[in-house]
Every structure is written in C-alpha cells, then in structure tokens.
Structure to design on (196 residues):
C-alpha cells in the first residue's frame, strides 16, 4: 500500500503514523535509532507490506502491470489501491478525506526533526500538492505514477501504466475490494499489539 493507506492504517496515533510514513526510507537496523514508539510504526508498516505482498488479490492485480513493469508492478498496485481507498465510500467521503489529509499533515509536522533526509525533502511536496487527498482523482494517480518512475532506477515512462490502470480499472477495483477489508483487520490487530 502507498501513503494514504499507511496513514489511514495508523489509526490516528501520531507516533505510529510517523513511523508508518517514514518506513520506506529507513533501511535495516537504522530503525533502532528512532524512539521506540516510532519504531512500532515502522514495524507496522513492514507488517502491512508483508501481508500485502502475500495476498492472492494483490498477486492478481499485479498481473495487470507485470508484463510491462516486472518487479515494479507492486509499486503501481500500491498507488492504484490508494486511489480505491480514497474513493471507497465505506472509508471516506470527499469531506472526510480532505479532513483526514489535513489532520495527517498536521500530525506529521512535529516529527520533521526525526524524519530521514529523503522524507524531509519529500514531505513539503506531499503537503503542498495534497497527495493524500488527490489520490481520488485520475490526475493524482497519473502524477503519482510519474513520480514513481522518476524515483525508479530502471523505469523510463509511466504512460503505459496509467493506460493499464484505466483499461483494467474494474478488475483492479475488484482486487482491492477482496483485499482491503482483510488488510484493515490485520493492520488493526497488529496496531493493538504495537501501540505504545
């Protein structure tokens, strides 16, 4: 899952949220340099990623992108699933998604002094461009796909990915529908074990 899901699956806990959001920028044992409460968020993020990678619905969804993007298919699915979460009426309305995005940015602000350098550089763009809110729009997904390609060593274009997302929208949505309720339950149980 991508930033919206990791923020959402922090269940409103500031320390867990901070760790969950920075986890991809914290390699290996470097997590031990963070306060224990933030380490718990990093652990939750990694547990969510393992659950996601092993789920049958995610494997089915990856088949849409794998022929063109191989090992990066999962990264495109993470972004696509954030779109379906942003537009999921069981989880958000337009107003509550906006409120959630603003609250998330505000909760992260006090942690800027502990963010890894790459996240320090990225966070102002996330906030000013309102990534969490804009996942609901096709343009937001298109831009997120392009951002993924800019950061990836072996990718050169995202137009194909966005076309695949549009062409297979219903299939991808059905995969999300099979997957997300199970992920949410798993993440909440893990959160209850991890929270400070």
């Amino acid at each position: 899952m991508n930033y919206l899901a990791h923020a959402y699956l922090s269940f409103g806990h500031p320390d867990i949220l901070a760790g969950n959001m920075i986890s991809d920028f914290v390699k290996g044992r470097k997590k031990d340099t963070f306060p224990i409460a933030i380490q718990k968020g990093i652990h939750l993020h990694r547990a969510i990623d393992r659950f996601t990678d092993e789920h049958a619905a995610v494997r089915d969804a990856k088949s849409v992108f794998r022929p063109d993007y191989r090992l990066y298919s999962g990264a495109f699915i993470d972004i696509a699933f954030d779109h379906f979460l942003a537009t999921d009426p069981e989880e958000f309305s337009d107003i509550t998604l906006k409120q959630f995005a603003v609250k998330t940015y505000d909760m992260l602000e006090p942690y800027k002094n502990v963010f890894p350098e790459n996240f320090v550089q990225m966070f102002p763009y996330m906030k000013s461009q309102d990534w969490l809110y804009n996942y609901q729009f096709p343009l937001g997904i298109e831009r997120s796909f392009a951002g993924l390609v800019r950061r990836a060593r072996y990718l050169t274009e995202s137009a194909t990915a966005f076309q695949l997302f549009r062409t297979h929208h219903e299939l991808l949505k059905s995969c999300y529908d099979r997957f997300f309720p199970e992920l949410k339950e798993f993440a909440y149980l893990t959160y209850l074990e991890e929270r400070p």
